[in-house]
Amino acid sequence: MPKKAREKFKTEHNVFDVFTNKTIFKLITQGNFKGLESPISIGKESNVFSAITNNDERVIVKIYRLEACDFNQMYNYIKDDPRYERIKRKKRSIIFEWVQREYRNLIKAREAQVNVPTPITFLNNILVLEFIGKNDEIAPKLKDKVPKNKELFFNKVIENMKRMYKAGLVHADLSAFNILNFNETPVIIDMSQSTTLEHPLAEEFLVRDVKNICYFFNKYGLSVRKEDIMNKIKE
């Protein structure tokens, strides 16, 4: 990378710690994207950016903040996941496994034809994903754009939950905050907390997910019962 480009990179990314900057730089040199654009969301534990690829397409870059992450909460979710039963309680190890876990969950969901963003790659505390939206505008979250046909949208959400369940996964954090409304079609996001059905709290997580979705759509005029939806997902 030329000196001028290195200086520009350093200036634009001085908001990140040195380790994260090095990880971003490595992802750039690997050809995953040319550079970050403006932030899409700034969260307590992660920052989400759009980025431009060498083909002038957009991707999502999700960066977990190494110092701000509640790794104890992460550990509590991941320690009972049979895929990570040997994980050590070290902060960076947990965060890195958390990122890998989201990538693996997205792959598994895609294979089950669940409507989620395509995972592209991950490295350390950074995950690169398919950009869901039009041009430079990301699709809005369900909480910010209520669908025109609420019943149809609701049924699509439940069908995706059913496919996920049949694939042996529970989202474990599903709500109107974690579903995009892309052209009146749901796209489920934020699957780092998703776990297998072998997790001792999988049933509790599923009940909570269903309760959140039913609450949202009941608020907008649908009459749906948690018990009926649980049966539908498991049938």
Walk me through the structure.
This protein has 235 residues and is α+β, with helices and mostly antiparallel strands. The chain has two domains: 135 residues, Phosphorylase Kinase, domain 1 (2-Layer Sandwich); 97 residues, Transferase(Phosphotransferase), domain 1 (Orthogonal Bundle), CATH 1.10.510.10. A five-stranded antiparallel β-sheet has the order 1-2-3-5-4, sandwiched between helices. β4 and β5 form a beta hairpin. α3 crosses α4 and α5 crosses α7. The N terminus is likely disordered.
Strand content: 15-25%
Question: What is the molecular shape?
Answer: globular
Number of helical elements: 7
Q: From the 3D coordinates, which CATH architecture of the largest domain would you assign?
A: 2-Layer Sandwich
Average of per-residue pLDDT values: 90
Element pattern in H and E: HHEEEHHEEEEHEEEEHH
Reading off the top of the CATH hierarchy, the class of the largest domain is best stated as: Alpha Beta
Structural class by helix and strand composition: alpha+beta
Strand adjacency order, main sheet:
1-2-3-5-4
State the distance separating the first and last CA atoms.
Answer: 55 Å
How many DSSP-defined strands?
11
Largest sheet: 5 strands, antiparallel
What is Rg?
Answer: 19 Å
By CATH, the topology of the largest domain is: Phosphorylase Kinase, domain 1
| Fraction of residues in H or I helices | 40-55%
* Tally of distinct domains: 2
Question: Which ranges are low-confidence, i.e. pLDDT below 50, for 5 or more consecutive residues?
Answer: 1-14
- CATH superfamily descriptor of the largest domain: Phosphorylase Kinase, domain 1
